[in-house]
Amino acid sequence: MTVLLFMFCLYSQADLGTQAVFNGETAVPVVKNADKPAPVPQGAIYKVQTDKKVVALTFDISWGEKAPGPILDILEKKGVKKATFFLSGPWTTTHGDIAKRIKTMGYEIGNHGHRHDDFPKYNNQWITEQVGKSEQAIYETTGVKTKLIRTPNGAFDKRVVKHLNSMGYTVVQWNTDSLDWMRPGPDKIVQRVVSRAVPGDIILMHASDSALQTIDALPRIIDGLRQKGYEFMTVSELISGAGVTSKQE
């Protein structure tokens, strides 16, 4: 109890704390150190605990070229300078011009795997190979060495997350799901995101061609969140310097 009380007092001064899912509940401090990189947050990150009105817009891209360009145009027109894109390896290789534009515009780039299949179905070696392929494709195209990963279809289990963490990856899920890939209509996408967003939220959207309605919904999502006082950050900015609370199932 004394140790827990000490840890609570030590980290209660932090503005941000990160929520992850996964046996018991543990607090893992992420301490900035000029000599060492910050430890990889353990578990799968869904949101950050904060009273500040900040959210991270995230976009998964695994195929297509109709949606990414217009979405980047909207972000630029609306002055949204911070967002995180999770790119698959094959898409990055075949759409290098768009991937480079994402990098040039200053947006954060994460890994979305190579083959778009559920990681829990395969062994760790297969996962390592798949992540390595997409990591290499992204690096060769954009020069970015990815440290964040969103697994294909958001599929993971305890073993998968532990393995990805051991590879140096922070596993990023989401707290608010736009469900844009289901094509419920732009109005419903807007209403779902704006009504559900909370401080420290990680918001899931897609910039693949399976979610073309995102193009119509995104300007109103940005306006709606701003009207509520929200500012936009990258996922890494939300996590940076935070104490990580990890729940494991």
Write a structural description.
- The protein is of the alpha/beta class and 249 residues long.
- The chain has a single domain, classed as Alpha-Beta Barrel (TIM Barrel), CATH 3.20.20.
- The protein has nine helices and twelve strands.
- It has helices at residues 2-11, 68-77, 89-94, 96-104, 124-142, 158-166, 186-196, 213-227, 235-239, and strands spanning 17-21, 24-29, 44-49, 54-61, 84-87, 108-111, 148-149, 170-172, 176-177, 201-206, 231-232, 243-248.
- The strands form two sheets. The protein has a six-stranded mixed sheet. Strands 4, 5, 6, 9, 10 and 11 form a six-stranded parallel sheet that branches.
- Strand 9, helix 7 (186-196) and strand 10 form a beta-alpha-beta unit.
- Helix 7 (186-196) runs parallel beside helix 8.
- The longest helix is centred in the middle third of the chain and has 19 residues, at 124-142.
- It is globular and about 45 Å long.
- Residues 1-15, 21-35 and 243-249 have low confidence and may be disordered.
- One of its GO terms (biological process) is carbohydrate metabolic process.
- This is Polysaccharide deacetylase family sporulation protein PdaB.
- InterPro entries: Glyco_hydro/deAcase_b/a-brl, NODB_dom, PdaB-like, Polysacc_deacetylase_ArnD.
- One of its GO terms (cellular component) is membrane.
- GO terms for molecular function: hydrolase activity, acting on carbon-nitrogen (but not peptide) bonds.
